[in-house]
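Re: weekly structure request thread

Next one in the queue (102 aa):
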Amino acid sequence: MTREVGRTDDGRWTVVDGRRWRAADPALPDDVRTRLLRHLGVARSAVRSAGRSDDAAALAAARARVQLAKTGLGERGEAWWDQDGDARRARWEAALRELDAG
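Done, posted below.
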């Protein structure tokens, strides 16, 4: 199955098969993006595992970590294009602090 993937002209949205998804913050340093994506992958895996084991508490915790990683990436929460540079940095630093601690 071939998927159509593109980006809006303003770079704010990724378009997959006609559906818009907020793009990650382009100001993310490469090392920060890599760390957040790693956390996101681990959290998504935990969501699948918790769902298969029917563990409601683990599922809620894993989903919260997915939310936190996506917020750090700028894909959720306040739109990154509405934030100044300091707020954007504070967003991803706070997300990484919490994800690294947990």
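The chain has a mean pLDDT of 96. The helical segments are 30-53, 56-73, 85-101.
Next request, please.
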